[in-house]
Amino acid sequence: MSDTMPGADEQPPGPPPGTPEPHEGPEEPAYDPAEPRSLGVARSATGNTEVDAQLSRLADVDHLATDGHIEVYEDVHRGLRDALTALDARPGPPAPAPSGPYDNRS
């Protein structure tokens, strides 16, 4: 007696059932970036001209592909950091003079 089923040897050679067929023709690109478009983020004035100039520079990314955003962001970050550093360097009112060597209240 045989354990094989009749007609089992009649299957055509090929990939197993459920295997996707190979794609023929030109390969599609793996990455297809979308066109640049404005995010529509409102920017309001801060009152500091240096900071406002840097914030308005952020509008440049609306016209760039995402690959170009990092350069603008780094430039704006550098400009904002310089503006904050300049605020610390400006002379302010003089410090109050000490009242004496000791302030005895007893």
Automatic annotation (TrEMBL):
Compositionally skewed regions (Low complexity) per UniProt: 1-11
Residue numbers spanned by region Disordered: 1-48, 84-106
Superkingdom to which the source organism belongs: Bacteria
Protein name: Uncharacterized protein
Organism per entry: Streptomyces monticola
UniProt lineage: Bacteria, Bacillati, Actinomycetota, Actinomycetes, Kitasatosporales
